């Protein structure tokens, strides 16, 4: 029988009842960052113009926002961003993203009479872009109070952060934070002395890690964690395995709507955007190695192949390797081709996939970048040595120069390329963001005892509902099974159409 929380959730979400099925390391340390280097004064005007206004920081002063006292037009000062005067521009960016995020707009309309997150205090750590701003403001419409920090030091859109602050959100983030700034922002965001969060929305696990490390008592009143990255999910499973997970957690990363849409289609379109904006390189005929053939790797390979690049793939998983072979890519070890390739892209979620021994053998001008969430895929520590010289040539573009004059082109200091160096498609982000919002609703409204201190996967019924919210954009019409067909397949005519284990 459905609980009262289940009925509340289903009434808000869908006419068909959604039933959840229980499914069952320590945190990686960030390498020390010595602080942000000033941009080279020799950057050409054409190179700065090639950046979109939301990604370029070349025109902004280098002083830390921590040294400034800023207030919104309504007197709010509980935030720390680059420049509150950019709020109007950021608001236009958010409004433009809303046009491509239909699911969140539907959730807002359905919340007009009911606030499923009333009383929720959500502390979040994600990329702060126009798309995540639409999610944050949707959570507020659903009744939540929110405080937010950035999960990546390069991906924050400063104008969007200003618009969020002007709208009353306590946000602590700016583009180009130092490592110390990064953790300072997360600490201020948690606000343990003045504000007690009861929900966590995390991307990468850094916020969860910080609360475990510094404010573990907060978990006593916490209802749950929603995590959307492979890195963060891995950390949660490690905590669960060690018996240290204090609250239920939702694994959004492994939902179909994240894996098969955000990871694949978002990366398929944004990989080229990031590479083109930073390097101006023509990819027809270039030799490229993509490390990892998961959904992110598949998207990257498809985009590069379409431009005429010669693409190689590295893989540890024989199933993914076989998929790469049957898609027409040669599967090799990086060491086999590292001397000849023009571009190396990592997307594995692992660490030290590209080591110093590989970089020593790369040819002059080789482009090196990362499309995985974590900044550990490229061994950055081995590049910060006395024998190598760094030269900043554009925002997020460094030449790392060897003693013999050889140089490689390193993008975003090994961090996530697309969100650091370009923007991402709003429509695909709508799918993931809607899934995150529904996961928060379920965890927040679940009766005590439904979820234990473990990591849970989202049911396919929720994935299908999120997908259905986006079909009208394409004027797509679903075929409805008749009773005989549904009986033949052994499923309900209204779904779910896939079993919970389907990926």
UniProtKB/TrEMBL annotation:
SUPFAM superfamilies named among the record's database cross-references: Formate/glycerate dehydrogenase catalytic domain-like (SSF52283), NAD(P)-binding Rossmann-fold domains (SSF51735)
UniProt region (Disordered), positions on chain: 21-71
GO biological process: one-carbon metabolic process; S-adenosylmethionine cycle
Cofactor dependence: NAD(+)
Lineage: Eukaryota, Metazoa, Chordata, Craniata, Vertebrata
Domain S-adenosyl-L-homocysteine hydrolase NAD binding: 263-424
Record-given protein name: S-adenosylhomocysteine hydrolase-like protein 1
Cofactor binding notes: Binds 1 NAD(+) per subunit.
PANTHER family to which the protein is assigned, alphabetical: ADENOSYLHOMOCYSTEINASE (PTHR23420), ADENOSYLHOMOCYSTEINASE 3 (PTHR23420:SF2)
Gene3D superfamilies: Adenosylhomocysteinase-like, NAD(P)-binding Rossmann-like Domain
Highest taxon in the source lineage: Eukaryota
One CC-aspect GO term: cytosol
Family to which the UniProt record says this protein belongs: Belongs to the adenosylhomocysteinase family.
Keywords in alphabetical order: NAD, One-carbon metabolism
Pfam families to which the protein is assigned, alphabetical: AdoHcyase, AdoHcyase_NAD
Annotated residues for binding of NAD(+): 294-299, 315, 418
Binding site for substrate: 129, 203, 228, 258, 262
Biased composition (Low complexity): 40-57
Organism: Seriola dumerili
Biased composition (Basic residues): 30-39
């Amino acid at each position: 029988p459905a609980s009262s929380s289940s009925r509340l959730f289903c009434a808000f979400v869908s006419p068909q009842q959604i039933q959840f099925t229980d499914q069952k390391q320590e945190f990686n340390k960030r390498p020390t960052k010595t602080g942000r280097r000033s941009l080279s004064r020799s950057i050409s005007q054409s190179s700065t113009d090639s950046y979109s206004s939301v990604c370029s920081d070349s025109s902004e002063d280098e002083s830390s926002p921590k040294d400034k006292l800023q207030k919104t037009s309504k007197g709010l000062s509980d935030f720390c961003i680059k420049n509150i005067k950019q709020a109007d521009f950021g608001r236009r960016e958010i409004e433009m993203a809303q046009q491509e995020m239909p699911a969140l707009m539907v959730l807002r309309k359905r919340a007009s009479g009911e606030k499923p997150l009333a009383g929720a205090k959500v502390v979040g750590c994600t990329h702060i872009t126009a798309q995540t701003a639409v999610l944050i403001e949707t959570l507020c419409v659903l009744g939540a109070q929110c405080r937010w920090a950035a999960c990546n030091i390069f991906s924050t859109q400063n104008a969007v952060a200003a618009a969020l602050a002007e709208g009353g959100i306590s946000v602590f983030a700016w583009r180009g934070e130092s490592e110390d700034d990064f953790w300072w922002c997360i600490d201020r965001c948690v606000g343990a002395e003045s504000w007690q969060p009861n929900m966590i929305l995390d991307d990468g696990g850094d916020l969860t890690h910080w609360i475990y490390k510094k404010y573990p008592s907060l978990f006593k009143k916490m209802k749950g964690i929603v995590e959307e990255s492979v890195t963060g999910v891995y950390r949660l499973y490690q905590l669960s395995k060690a018996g240290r997970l204090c609250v239920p957690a939702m694994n959004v990363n492994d939902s179909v709507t994240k894996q098969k849409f955000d990871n694949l289609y978002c990366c398929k379109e944004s990989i080229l955007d990031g590479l083109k904006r930073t390097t101006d390189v023509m990819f027809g005929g270039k030799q490229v190695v993509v490390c990892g053939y998961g959904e992110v790797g598949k998207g990257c390979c498809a985009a590069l192949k379409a431009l005429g690049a010669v693409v190689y793939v590295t893989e540890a998983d024989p199933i993914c390797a076989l998929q790469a072979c049957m898609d027409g890519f040669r599967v090799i070890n990086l060491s086999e081709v590292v001397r000849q390739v023009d571009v190396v892209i990592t997307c594995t979620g692992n660490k030290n996939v590209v080591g110093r021994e590989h970089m020593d053998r790369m040819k002059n001008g080789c482009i090196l970048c990362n499309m995985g969430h974590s900044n550990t895929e490229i061994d950055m520590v081995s590049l910060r040595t006395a024998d190598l010289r760094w030269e900043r040539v554009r925002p997020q573009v460094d030449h790392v120069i060897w003693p013999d004059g050889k140089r490689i082109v390193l993008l975003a200091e090994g961090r996530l390329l697309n969100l650091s160096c370009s923007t991402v498609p709003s429509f695909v982000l709508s799918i993931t963001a809607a899934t995150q919002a529904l996961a928060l609703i379920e965890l927040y409204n679940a009766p005590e005892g439904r979820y234990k201190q473990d990591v849970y996967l989202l049911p396919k019924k929720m994935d299908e509902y999120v997908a259905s919210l986006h079909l009208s954009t394409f004027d797509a019409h679903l075929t409805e099974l008749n009773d005989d067909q549904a009986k033949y397949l052994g499923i309900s005519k209204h779904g779910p159409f896939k079993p919970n284990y389907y990926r």
